[in-house]
Amino acid sequence: MSYVLVVEDDRDIADLVERYLTRAGHVVTVVDAGDAALESVRGRVPDLLLLDLMLPGMDGLEVCRAVRHAPATAALPIIMLTARTEEGDRIAGLETGADDYVTKPFSPNELVARVGALLRRAQRWAESGETTLRYGTLALDRERHRVTDGADDVKLTAKEFLLLEYFLQHRGRVLSRDLLLTDVWGYRYTGGTRTVDVHVRRLREKLPVLANAIDTVKQFGYRLVDPADAACPPGGRSRPGAQRP
């Protein structure tokens, strides 16, 4: 049973979210302002924070920033819930530290599925005991939600971060697109498996160390090979089942 703090000033939406999350087996507390959210978090750290962007007084971005800067809550899973649909607003929320971003109007069942997926990911982190995953010069810091390549910070979206984490956790395994959608996106994604290909391409572009490291396995999915196998000499060498898209 997980404890979810919902920060939402629209009473109807708050009641709807609380009802669906409670039905899914979660313990839910609802507050309607940013300062009340921080006070609640300091009194009892939730397992997940569902945070509206537009709040009276302190807005959701400020709350998210404050939560991320406090050592006790730096790794707290956060889903931002907002009526803002512009790409710039989504990017601002994700770069502030939100793990996921849901726009209104939304499907309550999908929201519950996203909450469950993020909680399962947090549980895997806790069970593994690892805070940093490494691949060659690349480091993924789970607690700080930060990716570096050598001395350089790399800006990833929330889904790019989760996809990279999943590849690092399952190095060497062939991962189907359907499996990646289920375990990374965490619900039945209506946009189809093409979204996986798009996110893989972005990882390759943003992280040159992965350009030859994420193999495309024809008609199936992807595999992250070991760093030594990813270093392909001039003229190249083929790996069984591997194909570039």
Describe this entry's structure for a reader.
The protein contains nine helices and 13 strands. With 245 residues, it is an alpha/beta fold. It folds into two domains: 3-127, Response regulator (Rossmann fold, 3-Layer(aba) Sandwich), CATH 3.40.50; 130-243, Winged helix-like DNA-binding domain superfamily/Winged helix DNA-binding domain (Arc Repressor Mutant, subunit A, Orthogonal Bundle). The strands form three sheets. Strands 2-1-3-4-5 form a five-stranded parallel beta sheet, sandwiched between helices. Strands 6-7-8-9 form a four-stranded antiparallel beta sheet, covered by helices on one side. A hairpin with a 2-residue loop joins strand 6 and strand 7 (138-141). The radius of gyration is 19 Å and the shape is globular. The termini are far apart.
What key attributes describe this structure?
2 domains; four-stranded antiparallel β-sheet; 245 residues; Arc Repressor Mutant, subunit A; Rossmann fold; alpha/beta; 13 strands; 9 helices
Write the layout of secondary structure elements.
Layout: E1 3-7, H1 11-23, E2 27-31, H2 34-43, E3 48-52, H3 60-69, E4 78-82, H4 87-96, E5 100-103, H5 108-128, E6 132-135, E7 138-141, E8 146-149, E9 152-154, H6 158-169, E10 175-176, H7 177-185, H8 194-206, E11 214-217, E12 221-224, H9 227-230, E13 242-243
Parallel strand pairs: 1-2, 1-3, 3-4, 4-5
Antiparallel strand pairs: 6-7, 7-8, 8-9, 10-12, 11-12, 11-13
